[in-house]
Design brief:
Number of strands: 25
Helix content: 40-55%
Number of helices: 27
Strand order of the largest sheet: 16-15-14-5-2-1-18-17
Structural class: alpha/beta
Largest sheet: 8 strands, parallel
Length: 785
């Protein structure tokens, strides 16, 4: 059954299946059709997110086990709800004591029946798996290693011992294992298993192997067959060796009866591969268009200039978007992904060594070519179909500029042809093509989402997953074209505004986006608040870049902060890696950050922040209600993150992942209920056969209205850039032509309108949005009422 709308719950030990069951009546009352659950398979004990799966064959006991999940499904079904599960095919937790399959591999080596599960390069490791778990070099940690029976202990960690080795002296015992315990810093350059991004605690799974797919998906498929689960969200498909092949196998295994969406981040105008047997994406492409509608392009440009003047970013460290991305990509590919680059180089060497026509490309040249091409991939992953579009001749020519001798630059052509699948289909060729794509997606995520987004900060509401901070605004015409394409090609795709991965909730972004409509007022405020905070002990920011981010975050977040702002800002400076990092922290700088936040944004100046924020409230209201209504009525299946039906102010994880609680009702809640009830009552208007027709306003303020009609039955109209609108004189002289018929206002039951021109001052008299439903009265009449 295709959902009409889903509601995401973060299932965790503090909010298990029984808690979710207790929330079902409330959630069903909102009008959604399905509960969307975060991962529920056995994970590392205590995990609050569940993406660190340790046993995909069992439902997590900490959450209530399989019986608890089936009981939740029964309760949901009694209230008219189905279940959608988030599943993690790409990786498992590399924690041997909790991961039985990995435990057996470490005990038995490459001949273990579980060895094919994991993406391990045994040859590169000299027949061993590097486990970078030690706090120091192994010689310095020997005293912390203990043997008890057939188990090696290191603190709370446990490792299996190879048969008949437990009696050996410790140095010999270590040498006899199928694994090598190493200093954690070795992961950057020496790791010989594929991991999730740069997280060595998550080991890649080879689901491209049919037997591995079957073993790791047996429980999920059983739950689908039994009707417990009706939909699947596929986490990080870009990490897989063959995403399309995986999705086809999954579709076949589920009998095509499962609504399936993929967490695919589309960049710019990139399209989801048409051949994928899925309903669409999880919705970050929709999020970018929705946010962009409420961002003023002129003001956003002015904020860039103001940011450069205020923060004075040196060179390309944050003043120019494309340069910031390129610089971050070079840092990540040479530093954090050095092991992945080395793995690609080994594969390229093997291909060249076995092909007389490709010999004599030096390893350093292949490594350089790999690096230079990776940083020039403009999307997350270059797929074989259309691969030329992302690995162009122009990109190759630019990559060759890294070579002093032109003849050595021909290594770029070899790497490009390997990545595009032009040099053959041997095992190493196929492996290189897959690993290049997997590394590309990791590089894009780490360099853009986790680095550049924290370095380039003129308007931080634009720095969201799938977003384009260099061009954050979206024109109404572009939004309509996107929605028309969804209605035609992907009518059941997912749409989102807030997720467990968004860096700021939609309500926070909505407030910050208003700054694009008043850049001069923002500039005056940030100057004023900087001077005000600077008079307090510790209130001067350690650098102006941080100050700009902190004050925008404070305006968007509201108060009280209760330390949440401080934690988010500490994470931002570590991710930016300009003054401190996760692995090489500058304690003095981080203390200065904490002192500044305590004295400034979380100190007495917060009252000035609140006063400034109150000035924005009417315009924030238009953004919040407008984006919510558009998401709930545009093509696709809207996913509501827990509590976002009311005001939800949250920052980057883990701040946004605390357990569910019912939202305090407000007018956003009433709007959400009305739209969801309408979707449930009129599925034909929003379903796969439904249509999307843009409605054009006329008059001096026409650009401030976005409106459309769904299948001739529902009209949505919202106000955009409301602060600019107010400054220009409001809606006077501007009208919206409604389709013929009689239209009831679902947000104000006392109002009805006839088809034809309606003054927007009338339509938006009480609120900046309107949701109209065709009635059976006076069909075809003209005029407004």
């Amino acid at each position: 059954m295709r959902p009409t709308a889903t509601y995401r719950l973060q299932i965790q030990p503090d909010f298990p299946f029984t808690s979710a069951a207790a929330a079902v009546p409330y959630i069903a009352g909102l009008g959604v059709s399905h509960l969307h659950l975060s991962p529920v398979l056995e994970a590392v004990p205590g995990s609050t997110h569940g993406y660190d799966v340790v046993d995909p064959t069992r439902v997590r006991e900490e959450l209530g086990g399989e019986e608890g999940l089936r009981a939740l499904a029964r309760t949901a079904r009694e209230h008219g709800l189905g279940l959608v599960l988030d599943i993690v095919p790409n990786h498992m937790a590399a924690v041997p004591r909790h991961n039985p399959a990995l435990w057996e591999v470490l005990r038995e080596g490459p001949l273990s029946p579980y060895a094919p599960w994991f993406d391990i390069d045994w040859e590169a490791g000299g027949g061993k798996v590097l486990l970078p778990v030690l706090g120091g070099r192994v010689g310095d940690e020997l005293g912390s290693l203990k043997v008890e029976g057939d188990v090696l202990h290191y603190g709370e960690q446990r490792f299996p011992l190879r048969e008949s080795t437990s009696h050996l002296p410790l140095p010999e015992l270590l040498a006899a294992q199928w694994y090598r315990l190493g200093w954690w810093r070795l992961a950057r350059t020496e790791l010989n298993y594929r991991r999730f991004f740069t997280i060595s605690d998550l080991i890649g799974v080879r689901v491209e192997d049919p037997d591995v797919f079957g073993a790791t998906h047996s429980k999920i498929l059983e739950l689908v067959r039994d009707g417990v689960v009706e939909g699947l969200r596929i986490d990080h498909p870009d990490g897989l060796a063959d995403p399309e092949g995986y999705l086809r196998r999954l579709d076949e295994a589920t009998g095509g009866a499962c609504w399936t969406v993929v967490e695919k981040i589309l960049t710019g105008d990139e399209r989801l591969p048409a051949g994928w047997p899925v309903a669409g994406t999880t919705g970050y492409d929709a999020l970018r268009r929705l946010d962009g509608l409420f961002t003023d392009p002129v003001g956003a440009g002015e904020l860039v200039t103001l940011y450069r003047e205020f923060a004075g970013p040196a060179g390309d460290r944050g003043g120019y978007w494309e340069a910031t991305v390129r610089r971050a990509a070079y840092r990540v590919v040479t530093h954090e992904l050095a092991a992945e680059t080395a793995a690609l180089t080994r594969l390229a060497e093997r291909v060249c060594d076995r092909d007389p026509a490709l010999r004599d490309h030096a390893p350093w040249a292949l490594r350089t070519a790999i690096r230079e091409l990776l940083v020039r991939v403009p999307v997350y992953r270059p797929y074989r179909v259309g691969g030329d579009e992302v690995l162009t001749v122009k990109a190759a020519a630019s990559a060759k500029g890294a070579f002093a001798v032109p003849e050595e630059g021909t290594a770029v052509d070899v790497v490009r042809d390997l990545a595009l699948g032009r040099l053959g289909d041997g095992p190493d060729h196929v492996a290189f093509r897959a690993r290049f794509a997997q590394t590309s997606s990791a590089l894009r995520a780490k360099s853009v989402e986790d680095t550049a987004f924290y370095r380039y900060v003129p308007l931080i509401s634009a720095n969201e997953v799938g977003g384009d901070p260099g061009s954050p605004a979206v024109a109404p015409g572009d939004f309509h074209a996107y929605c028309e394409r969804l209605a035609r090609d992907w009518p059941a795709t997912g749409t989102v505004l807030t997720t467990h991965d968004t860096k700021r909730s939609s309500d926070v972004r909505a407030r910050i986006a208003v700054l694009s409509e008043c850049p001069d007022r923002w500039a005056a405020f940030v100057q004023q608040i900087t001077e005000e905070a600077g008079r307090l002990e510790g209130g001067r920011a350690p650098d102006p870049h941080l100050a700009w981010v902190a004050w925008q975050t404070a305006v968007g977040f509201g108060f009280p902060y209760e330390g949440r702002l401080r934690e988010a800002l500490l994470k931002s400076v570590r991710e930016a890696a300009l003054h401190t990092t996760w692995t090489e922290p500058d304690e003095a700088y981080e203390k200065a950050v904490a002192d500044f936040v305590e004295a400034g944004p979380e100190g007495p100046p917060l009252y000035s922040v609140a006063q400034f924020a109150r000035e924005l409230d009417p315009f924030v209201r238009a953004n919040v209600l407008g984006s919510a209504l558009l998401q709930l009525t545009m093509p696709g299946v809207p996913d509501l993150y827990q509590r976002t039906e009311g005001e939800f102010l949250a920052l980057v994880d883990p701040d946004n992942r605390y357990p569910f609680g019912e939202a305090v009702p407000n007018e956003k809640t009433a709007l959400t209920r009305a739209a969801l009830r309408l979707r449930r009552e009129r599925p034909e208007a929003f379903g796969e056969s439904g249509t999307y027709v843009p409605l054009a306003a006329s008059g001096p303020a026409a650009a401030h209205c976005v409106a459309f009609c769904r299948t001739g039955e529902v009209v949505t109209a919202v106000t955009r850039l409301s602060k600019r609108l107010a400054a220009a004189g409001g809606w006077e002289g501007t009208e919206l032509a409604l389709p013929p018929g009689r239209w009831a206002d679902l947000l104000d039951g006392a109002r009805e309108f006839n088809g034809g021109a309606v003054p927007l001052a009338t339509l938006f008299a009480d609120r900046p949005v309107a949701l109209l439903s065709r009635t059976a009265v006076r069909e075809g009449s003209e005029g407004s009422g």
